[in-house]
């Protein structure tokens, strides 16, 4: 783990510059997500800089960007429509408290159960979603929009060959803004998306009655927010872990995200979580430390409060160019070649994850479905139990192989011949593991059937763990110690 000094001051120049790029890119997204949730654009902007600042100090992954997000906005839509903004703020605070609780309970450790195909599907779906979101800006746009985007993409791709000190996205934003002012074009700007009032948020507790009825209204929403937010945040942290070759503290990230949402709710902001697109922008722009996250929050606040009249003139085309490049860089293109090499089930899981995300516009849903599918395929693969019958003079030997548990018990008993009478029967379970009560029950029925047919039965190769399970749960095994070898 990196030291505190290294996390904060190990990459100062690049962290500050990349944080500026991210701050500018956050503005249109925060406004767009506010519109999705049905609230004033300033609510998304307040949330974004509150969350970014808190996560910079308390988050478990340095260099990760958190703010108001589309996934959280979608969860809030129905609550805002039915009960208003005040209930949304209280739901955001409760979601943060739940996330802190999850962090204390070390829920972040469950991330290791997310399979690689699901992770690839998550990343690919995100790349497609980012690209798809940019298409809307071209609808009804004039030729200058297309020209600006092409120029912007060219700058992002070519500028690093000239100078790697300044992030190419920042140069793109400055150059296209300058051209727009010089030519006095009518291309759409940030100011066209919504009003940026330039006022600081105020600390206030939601004006909502604190009673059981209110809890019934907000708890389902808060629980959904907490889960969706943590899934996206922890997957983003894992992706950045892979990009940087470093480790992050997933449980600390849960606590940090929770604290950030509590603060956002108290300052009039909507719920948020890690933004994988903005985090990738930060990474591609050279941001690695906590200073980049803090800078994005502070600069965002500066842009809104002090420089809002300059921010509103930035062409949307500049940010669209940045996001298109990010979407292409985010997509895991190597997975196309790997589809011929990996098991078919892995490909099915990856494609299903992508499909569900694109159909629901919710990354968390895709991940959950992907995990469930992976679990089903895994259980199917390991639930094949083999039983080999060997007949010798005066005895029958059954050699059992595999994992005996709830999914493999169905055909287990069918593999034995119980038509015996006073015959020595040996059951060799050296290569079998009994995992649960279902498996123990199937084994118990096996012993019972042989006992009813007067077999002289011996069990060989039973491990200590399996024997302890049978002693506790198998009636036949526990009352007939002569079975034991």
Q: Can you walk through the features of this model?
A:
The chain is of the alpha/beta class and 485 residues long. 63% of the residues lie in helices and 8% in strands. The protein is built from 20 helices and 6 strands. The protein has helices at 4-9, 12-37, 41-58, 70-83, 85-104, 116-135, 143-162, 168-183, 212-244, 250-266, 276-284, 290-305, 308-311, 316-330, 334-338, 344-360, 363-382, 437-452, 464-473, 475-479, and strands at 66-68, 272-274, 386-392, 395-404, 424-434, 456-460. The protein has a 4-stranded mixed sheet with strand order 3-4-5-6. The two termini are 51 Å apart. The model has no long low-confidence stretch (mean pLDDT 86).
Taking the sheet with the most strands, its summary is: 4 strands, mixed
Low-confidence stretches: none
Mean pLDDT equals: 86
Which radius of gyration do the C-alpha atoms yield? 29 Å
Sketch the topology as an H/E string, one letter per element: HHHEHHHHHHHEHHHHHHHEEEHEHH
Helix content: 55-70%
Our count of helices gives 20
Q: How many beta-strand runs?
A: 6
SSE layout:
Blueprint (H helix, E strand, L loop, with lengths): L3 H6 L2 H26 L3 H18 L7 E3 L1 H14 L1 H20 L11 H20 L7 H20 L5 H16 L28 H33 L5 H17 L5 E3 L1 H9 L5 H16 L2 H4 L4 H15 L3 H5 L5 H17 L2 H20 L3 E7 L2 E10 L19 E11 L2 H16 L3 E5 L3 H10 L1 H5 L6
Parallel strand pairs: 4-5, 5-6
Antiparallel strand pairs: 1-2, 3-4
Helix pairs in contact: 2-3, 2-4, 2-11, 2-12, 3-10, 3-12, 4-5, 4-9, 5-9, 5-10, 6-14, 6-16, 6-17, 7-8, 7-14, 8-14, 9-10, 9-11, 9-17, 11-14, 16-17
